[in-house]
Amino acid sequence: MKKIFLSFAIIGAFVIAFGIHGHAVWAGEADVLIDVLEKKGVLTPEEAKDAAAEVKKAEAETTPAELPKGLKGISIGGTYFLEYYHKDFDDDSIEDFGSFKVERAYLTIKKKFAPWFSSRLTADITYDSKRGDAGADASEVGWEFRLKYAYGKFDFKDIGGSSVNLSSEVGLVHTFSDDYDSALWPYRCQGKHYLDRHSLMSSADFGLNAKLELGSMDKDFKKKVSKKYAAKWGGIWLGAYNGSGYNKSEVNDNKVVEAGIYIRPLNMIKFLEGFRIGVQYMDGESNALLAGGSPNQYANWEITQFMASYQHEYFTIMGQIYDGKGEDTATDEADREGYNIAGFVRMPFHKPLRIFARYDIYDDDASAANTDKDEKTSIYGISYDLTKGVMPWVAIEKKDFEDSADGDDYDMFQVGLQIKF
After folding, report:
1. Three-state SS for 254?
2. 3: CB partners within 8 A, 6+ apart
3. pLDDT for 132
4. What is the C-alpha separation between 364 and 376, in angstroms, rounded?
5. Beta-carbon neighbour count of residue 51 at 10 Å?
6. d(C-alpha 363, C-alpha 365), whole Å
7. Tell me: the pLDDT tens digits for 22-50?
8. pLDDT digits (tens, 9 = 90+) for 134-158
C-alpha cells in the first residue's frame, strides 16, 4: 500500500511540476513513468491503468479551450463619449438647455489575416434628434446605427530591411486631418476636430488612402509621448475619396484628392525631437450644386492647411492655419479661412491630471466685402486618467458669432466620461 501511495505521489508531483511549463510535455513523460513503475512491479496492470486515466483527466482539465479558426486574430474594442452639458445662451429670449447624452458610442471589430493584411469594422451608434431643423421628420428622431470605418488594410513594415513603413486602407477609411489631429489631441470627446467641426471635411470617407512613414522614433519616445505618427523623419499621406463623408450619400462622379506631408526637422536634437510641421492639400467638388450655376455644376471645394506641433512627455501644443474654398456640402464657392491652437499640460506632481485649452476662429466668407463673419470658439478644461482607457473630464466652451445671423452666442458647461477599450 505504501508503494502504491508513493507511486501516485511521484506521478502527481511530476504532473504538477511539468504542468507549470506546458501540458504537452508532461502528459507523455508521465505515461513513460507509469510504464516503468508497472514493469518494476510497483504498480499492478490495473493500478497502472487507473494512473494513466488520472493523467489524461488532469491534462484535459489544464488544456485551454482552443478558439475556432474563424475567431483567431479577432479583437473587439469600443469607445464611449458620455456627458452632461448645459448651454446658457446670451440672448435671454432663447431658453437655456441641458441634457445627459451619449455623444458617441463606437464598437470596433478587427481581424488580423496576415502580418501584412488586416481589416476593421467600426459601428457608430449615435442619437440623431434633428432638433430645430426645418422640415425635420419626427420619424427620423432616435438612435442610428451607421458605419464609421469598414476597410481592409495593407501594412508593410521595415521595407527592404529599412525603417520605412507603408500602409494603405481601402473602403470606408480615415481622412488625413482628423487622423493626424487625433494623434495629437486626446479630447475628441469634448468636441470635433477643426475641419470636421466646421463641416469642412469629414473624419472618414469612402475611398482609399496610403501612408508612408520614414524612420521610427525610439522606444522611450513612443512609451512616454506617443506611438502615433511617430516617424523619425516624417511621412506622406495620399488619399482619394467620394467627398461626401461617411454619413452622406455620393451624388456626383467627382472624387476629391488629398495629400499630406509632415516632417520632424529637428529630430537630431533630443529636446526638440517632438517638433513637427506639416501641410495638407485637398481639391474636389462639393456634394451640392452651385447656387446660380449651370445645371449639374457642383461648387468647387478646396482645402490648404498648415500645421505645427510639439509633443513632450508633460505637454503638447498644436496649431493649424486653414485657407480654403467651399465646404463638403456648400452651395457656394466663397473663400474661407481660420486657425486653431490647442494644448494640454500634465501636472508634474501627478501625471494623470491634465489641464487643456483650445481656441479657434472660422470665417465662412473671407471676401474683402465681408469681414465680420468670424465664429470664435474658446474651450478650457481639466481631465484625469483614472485608469487605462477611462478618463473623466470637465470643460467650458464659449461660442461667439460676430454676425448674429450665423448663430447664437452661448456658454456651455460639460462634464463627461471617455471610455476606451
Report:
1. coil
2. 42
3. 41
4. 12
5. 21
6. 6
7. 444 445 666 777 776 667 776 788 877 77
8. 444 555 567 788 899 999 999 999 8
The values of phi and psi at residue 70, to 5°, are -70, -20
Note every long-range contact of 138-144, with CB atoms under 8 Å and residues 24 or more positions apart, other chains counting.
none
If you search the block for the grid coordinates 491634465, which residue do you land on? 354
CA–chain centroid gap for 75, Å, is: 15
Condensed to tens digits (0 to 9), the pLDDT of residues 315-330 reads: 999 999 999 999 888 8
User: What pTM does this model have?
Assistant: 0.81
Rounded to whole angstroms, how far apart are CA atoms 30 and 382?
A: 60
419's CB contacts (< 8 A; 6+ apart) are: 78, 79, 80, 82, 389, 390
Q: CA-to-CA distance for 240 and 397, rounded, in angstroms?
A: 34
H or E stretch including 97? strand 97-114
Rounded to a whole number, what is the largest CA-CA distance in the chain?
107
Answer whether 336's CB lies under 8 Å from 324's CB.
yes
Per-residue cell: 353: 491630471
Contact 361, 378 (CB under 8 A): no
pLDDT of residue 15: 47
Locus of grid cell 468647387: 300
* Cα–Cα distance for residue pair 256/63, rounded to 1 Å: 54
Q: How far, in Å, are 277, 299, 370, 408 from residue 336 at the CA level?
A: 22, 14, 11, 20
Residue from 246, 318, 256 nearest 281 by CA: 256
Tell me how many degrees the CA angle 108-114-119 measures, rounded to the nearest 5: 25
DSSP string, 17-85: HHHTT-HHHHHHHHHHHHHHHHHTTSS-HHHHHHHHHHHHHHHHHHSPPPPPGGGTTEEEEEEEEEEEE
The rounded distance, in Å, linking the Cα atoms of 326 and 322 is: 12
